[in-house]
């Protein structure tokens, strides 16, 4: 009898396809798969701020190195490895496939894709992926374990491979995906500020009057387009290309990460002026950046040459270079750095802690283990949190970090028709105005035969 998973408020429940007694509730599990013949489990668990891969359950075979959202996670038919879609950054479906071997090795399967939505194993131990080299429309590709690649279906809308039967029939989801960008102020109705079909909100000006967003569809070009838009709804103004990371406090500059050259950042002017290129010695890939409150430096996360691990730095805009904030890079750890870069929040051992630099002194914080930190108050005395179990509509709370006082603050109410997932969230320093992006998918199921 085939075993299946269900993700509930209590955790992952392991049961049977045809009903019966539920077997197990697995805590702190972010993704899971079960081999249909052997019953072995593959798990991704949250452990000490990292995302750890176990295969089989109880045997660690790797760590998720990227900081983006997790995609499909599937065990190979021969039971020797498991594949995972890793996303390059939160709110972006560009990514790559990682393979975790039963023997304990892990490797990245080239290439990187501009959009990577789903994967399934064929009976021949090939990976079939729904992906795009450019733009938003997905084709179906077969990837060999040796890195070979061939196209099975040309790009056409959003066609997602869900499963491949032993006789070669393919279950696909033919869908229309549209991103919404909601903007609101406390106590006022929200409005949608999306532009084309794949708009993702990134940030707001300090007064909440301007929205920074990325357009990820082909209408925004293959390298993404960056826009500023009045939150009153006026048409947006294009700033440049790349993946936008932050808007300066005075609204005059946007930090952009070039999709094809992530070893440097670009500072793009929103008023007449020339762009600037920002580099740090020894950095191979930038992943995140935001301005300090005075606008004189950036707080960045980056991977150094030869290391897949992420480290935090202060990058001065006067040309004096980068200063490490952390003593060393941490594998798979997400440190939530406070606005001035003096310290960070980090989940360790199932509890939130304050890690203060330099020296990395630690103290516990009054945040529950189920809290997901969404935004900082400008003075770093409070944060906005959401339940990490993602129950919708989602109530956000303002939590004082010194006392633990927890007050209801904002309720996010995305359109429930076709709602898929939250893509991004940002708020003004006073936490009075906010924006969030989410995907909506309307789809049909098909069985396709004859693909080779």
Can you walk me through this structure?
The protein is 0% helix and 56% strand. It is an all-beta fold. It contains no helices and 40 strands. Strands 16, 17, 18, 39 and 40 form a five-stranded antiparallel beta sheet that branches. A four-stranded antiparallel beta sheet has the order 4-5-6-7, with no helix packed on it. A four-stranded antiparallel beta sheet has the order 8-9-10-11, with no helix packed on it. A hairpin with a 5-residue loop joins strand 39 and strand 40. The chain has two domains: 141 residues, 6 Propeller (Neuraminidase); 265 residues, Neuraminidase (6 Propeller).
Write a brief structural summary:
The protein is an all-beta fold and 452 residues long. The chain is 0% helix and 56% strand.
Name the features.
Neuraminidase, mainly beta, 452 residues, 5-stranded antiparallel sheet, 4-stranded antiparallel sheet, single chain
Q: Provide the helix percentage.
A: under 10%
- Uncertain stretches of 5 or more adjacent residues: none
Number of strands: 40
Shape: globular
- Note the total helix count: 0
Amount of beta strand? over 45%
The SS-based structural class is mainly beta
CATH architectural category of the largest domain:
6 Propeller
CATH superfamily of the largest domain: TolB, C-terminal domain
Radius of gyration: 22 Å
Largest sheet geometry = 5 strands, antiparallel
Number of domains: 2
CATH overall fold name of the largest domain: Neuraminidase
Distance between the amino and carboxyl termini: 30 Å
Mean model confidence by pLDDT: 86
- CATH uppermost class of the largest domain: Mainly Beta
């Amino acid at each position: 009898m085939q075993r299946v998973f269900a993700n509930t408020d209590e955790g992952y429940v392991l049961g049977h396809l045809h009903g019966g007694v539920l077997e197990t509730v697995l805590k702190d599990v972010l993704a899971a798969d079960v081999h249909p013949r052997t019953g072995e489990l593959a798990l991704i668990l949250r452990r000490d701020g990292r995302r750890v891969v176990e295969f089989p359950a109880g045997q660690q075979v790797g760590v998720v190195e990227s900081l983006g959202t997790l995609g499909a996670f599937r065990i190979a038919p021969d039971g020797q490895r498991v594949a995972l879609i890793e996303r390059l950054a939160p709110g972006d479906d560009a990514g790559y496939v990682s393979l975790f071997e039963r023997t304990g090795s892990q490797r990245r399967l080239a290439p990187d894709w501009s959009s990577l939505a789903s994967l399934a194993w064929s009976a021949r131990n090939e990976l079939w992926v729904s992906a795009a080299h450019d733009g938003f429309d997905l084709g179906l590709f077969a990837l060999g374990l040796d890195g070979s690649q061939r196209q099975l279906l040309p790009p056409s809308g959003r066609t997602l491979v869900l499963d491949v039967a032993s006789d070669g029939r393919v279950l696909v989801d033919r869908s229309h995906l549209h991103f919404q960008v909601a903007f609101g102020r406390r106590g006022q109705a929200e409005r949608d500020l999306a532009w084309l079909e794949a708009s993702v909100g990134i940030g707001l000006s300090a007064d909440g009057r301007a929205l920074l967003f990325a357009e990820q569809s082909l209408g925004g070009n293959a390298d993404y387009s960056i826009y500023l838009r009045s939150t009153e709804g006026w048409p947006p103004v294009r700033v440049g290309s790349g993946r936008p990371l932050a808007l300066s406090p005075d609204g005059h500059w946007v930090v952009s990460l070039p999709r094809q050259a992530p070893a440097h950042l670009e500072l793009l002017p929103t008023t007449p002026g020339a762009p600037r290129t920002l580099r740090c010695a020894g950095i191979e890939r930038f992943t995140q950046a935001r301005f300090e409150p005075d606008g004189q430096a950036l707080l960045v996360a980056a991977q150094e040459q030869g290391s897949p691990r992420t480290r935090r730095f202060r990058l001065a805009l006067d040309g004096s270079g980068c200063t490490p904030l952390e003593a060393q890079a941490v594998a798979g750890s997400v440190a939530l750095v406070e606005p001035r870069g003096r310290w960070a929040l980090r989940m360790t051992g199932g509890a939130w802690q304050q890690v203060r630099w330099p020296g990395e002194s630690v103290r516990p914080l009054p945040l529950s283990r189920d809290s997901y930190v969404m935004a900082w108050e400008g003075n770093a005395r409070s944060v906005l949190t959401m339940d990490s179990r993602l129950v919708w509509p989602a109530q956000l709370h303002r939590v004082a970090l010194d006392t633990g006082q927890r007050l209801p603050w904002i309720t996010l109410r995305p359109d429930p028709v076709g709602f898929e997932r939250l893509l991004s969230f940002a708020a003004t320093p006073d936490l009075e105005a906010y924006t969030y992006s989410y995907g909506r998918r309307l789809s049909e199921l098909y069985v396709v035969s004859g693909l080779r």
